[in-house]
Amino acid sequence: MVAQKMYELGTKRSGIREIFEFAMKRSAEVGPENVYDFSLGNPNVPSPEYIKEAIIDLITNMPATAVHSYTVAPGAMEVRETLARSINERFGMNITGNNLFMTSGAAAAITITFKALTEEDDEIIAFAPYFPEYKVFVENVGSKLVVVPAKVDDFQIDFEAFRAVINPHTKAVIVNSPNNPSGVIYSEETIKELAAILTEKSKEYGHPIFIIADEPYREIAYDGLEVPYIPKFYSNTIVCYSYSKSFSLPGERIGYIVVPNEVEDFGAVYGAVAGAARVLTHVNASSLFQLVVARCAGKPSDISQYEKNGKLLYDGLTAAGIKCLKPQGAFYLFPQALEEDDVAFCEKAKKYDLLFVPGSGFGCPGFVRLAYCVSEETIRRSLPVLKKFAKEEYGIEC
Fold it and tell me: 303, 304, 308, 365: which is closest to 334 by C-alpha?
């Protein structure tokens, strides 16, 4: 009667959303100030004032047809040219508007790219921990997601494990840095080694292996850490970007794909991106928000609250005896659970209204994700509760 796989996807509840719904229920029962919900990666920092100013100016002073009408499928050329200039200035690239394809956020960019690159029996490699929707996206285009286990000491890439799974069916690897859920930034050394292996294997297998760079958190990096721009290190890189996090616009769904000229058979790849967008019913990205991001391209994002939150929560976790890497980027921490079963750990934490997401869902059991894009007050109020939880459930004296 219906497509069984689609039914299963539509009716299977998201673990993160279940936790979020539990938080709403508990907030009604005990008051929102007594619920410490670290489940959802929804930016809590308001979008910059210059975004509002751009929207008002565009709506007020441009003809409605220019603001709200369809654009060509890849996006308005003047928008793409503006964004290309910004990318060139920031990263020393040499691209034009013809290298960009505007999309409805990073999820659209990634699904379009998967569809454009893969055929039957192709495989895409992800490095744990990874964003769970990758599996849904890959399987939807008829390919297979292969996961490289996490290198849990620093969450860089385990290259020995990577070499064990790469094979002639590998079409691409997906790199998410700064990473959701670990908050780790892949170092330049990591990217260079990855590029060297892919160059070697592409020659060995007689076809290019692409890097798909998933970059919605690029601007959220701390302590002066640099996020390597992967096309500078590996020519067969396709960049998928979103303004959801940098401009706090997750609900507006605006982003882009960059296919650099250096990509092997650029014309075929860009054409396949356009074709994939077409079959996925992607007419064009929001006309208004194409104009908004072009107007605001290159303007700084204020990440100071995220940085403050990350350090505050990190200190609180470690004070409670919970091991965790220092925050590097994005707005997530990925501490080690106090027992082997991360799901059981999260269930015990719920008794204290501490809401975490099990790492098993990200391909990394034994860890949990905490999203610190919440109010600073929520974090401060949670700190004594964290200590109480660790002491009463695990006997840790702080």
Answer: 365
CA angle (282, 286, 290) in 5-degree steps: 120
Q: How many angstroms separate the CA atoms of 320 and 285, rounded? A: 45
Q: What is the pTM of this model?
A: 0.95
Topology classification of domain 69-296 = Aspartate Aminotransferase; domain 2 (3.40.640)
| Cβ density class 190-213: b for 16+ within 10 Å, e for less | bbebbbebbeebbeeeeebbbbbb
Domain definitions of the chain by residue range: 4-48+302-394, 69-296
Q: How many CA atoms lie within 13 A of 219 on its CB side?
A: 19
* Residue 239: strand pairing partners: 213, 258
Separation CA 102–CA 242 (nearest Å): 10
Instruction: Determine the Cα–Cα distance for residues 279 and 162; give it in Å rounded to an integer.
Output: 32
Provide the pairing of β-strand 100-103 with 357-358. Answer: unpaired
Q: What's the token pair of residue 200?
A: 């070697």
**DSSP H or E run through 318:** helix 304-319
Q: State how far the alpha carbon of 36 is from the alpha carbons of 306, 317, 351, 378, in Å.
A: 16, 13, 11, 6
| The listed CATH number (3.90.1150.10, 1.25.40.10, 3.40.50.300, 3.20.20.390) that belongs to domain 4-48+302-394 | 3.90.1150.10
Q: Among 213, 206, 287, which Cα is nearest to 253's? A: 287
Divide the 398 residues of the chain into consecutive groups of 10 and give the mean pLDDT of each group. Answer: 79 75 86 91 93 97 93 97 98 98 97 96 97 95 97 98 98 98 98 98 98 97 96 98 95 97 98 96 94 95 95 97 97 98 97 97 98 97 97 90
Distance CA 170, CA 206 (A): 12
Question: What one-letter code names the amino acid at 378?
Answer: T
Dump the DSSP string for 12-50: SPPHHHHHHHHHHHHHHHH-GGG-EE-------SPPPHH
Strand-pair category, 332-333 with 368-371: antiparallel
